[in-house]
Amino acid sequence: MIKILFICHGNICRSTMAQSVFQHMVNGAGIADEFVIDSFATSTEEIGNPPHRGTVNKLREVGVPLVPHRAKQITYRDYTEADYVIGMDEWNMRNLSRMLKGDPERKLHKLLEFSGSCRDIADPWYTGNFDETYDDIIEGCEALLEYLGY
């Protein structure tokens, strides 16, 4: 089993979208039993809240089932049990490094690095552009799946 954790600031927009998209991809490929996929926040601001309506609406529009989810903050224990901890932007990466003791096991990655890009996935909480966020998440998730050999 490969355990992948997607991380963003509040765990209601980008990381939940990535979790749902990646789960949909592995389900469609018939390899879901090889993965454990979850998502977390770096902050405590949205703990317990459901995914943002923009994420819900975008996933519905493109036919990707929303994984049932409530926002939660990542812990060091989550890190130790994961194979990949994947942030959406540089701010997430800095916070994760601080929260996860400097990433001693080298599990931290930014999602778009798998597609050869150093770009951040813009936070639609601020931009309002869930289409652009979705496109970037698709790019990153497809590249991650390929990186993992699928």
What would you note in describing this structure?
- The mean pLDDT is 97.
- The protein is globular.
- The protein has a single domain, classed as Response regulator (Rossmann fold), CATH 3.40.50.2300.
- It is built from six helices and four strands; from the N terminus they run E-H-E-H-H-E-H-E-H-H.
- The protein is an alpha/beta fold.
- Helix 4 (90-99) links the parallel strand 3 (84-87) and strand 4.
- Strands 2-1-3-4 form a four-stranded parallel β-sheet, with helices on both faces.
- Helix 1 (14-28) crosses helix 6.
- Helix content is 42%, strand content 14%.
- It starts with a strand and ends with a helix.
Please specify the SSE layout and strand pairing.
Blueprint: E1 2-8, H1 14-28, E2 35-41, H2 53-62, H3 76-81, E3 84-87, H4 90-99, E4 108-110, H5 124-127, H6 130-147
Parallel strand pairs: 1-2, 1-3, 3-4
Largest sheet geometry: 4 strands, parallel
Number of helices: 6
Cα-to-Cα separation, first versus last residue: 14 Å
β-strand percent reads 5-15%
- Tell me the quaternary state: single chain
Q: Note the overall shape.
A: globular
Provide mean pLDDT, rounded: 97
- According to CATH, what is the class? Alpha Beta
| CATH architecture assignment name | 3-Layer(aba) Sandwich
CATH fold-level name: Rossmann fold
Give the proportion of residues in helices: 40-55%
Strand order of the largest sheet: 2-1-3-4
Low-pLDDT ranges: none
Write a brief caption for the model.
The chain is of the alpha/beta class. It has helices at 14-28, 53-62, 76-81, 90-99, 124-127, 130-147, and strands at 2-8, 35-41, 84-87, 108-110. β1, α1 (14-28) and β2 form a beta-alpha-beta unit.
